[in-house]
Design goal:
By secondary structure, this protein is mainly alpha-helical. The protein has a domain of 36 residues. The chain is 51% helix and 0% strand. It is built from two helices and no strands. It starts with 10 loop residues before the first helix and ends in a 13-residue tail after the last helix.
């Protein structure tokens, strides 16, 4: 059992997102934390699991 709110993404969707981040790191590029949050927000909007008016925030 994990603590905190449940994930918006399925395990498969989250794995695809993480794989992208790992690939980008493997070619020598990285994202800042806020960039990852923005990308995740756009990803869930594209999947119709979130709307643009309620973006993710870093707490």
């Amino acid at each position: 059992m994990s603590s905190g709110p449940s994930s918006v993404l399925s395990q498969e969707e989250e794995a695809m997102f993480v794989d992208h981040l790992k690939f980008i790191a493997s070619v020598g590029y990285g994202y800042m934390r806020m960039e990852v949050v923005n990308m995740a927000s756009k990803y869930v909007v594209c999947l119709h699991k979130h709307d643009k008016e309620h973006p993710f925030f870093i707490k």
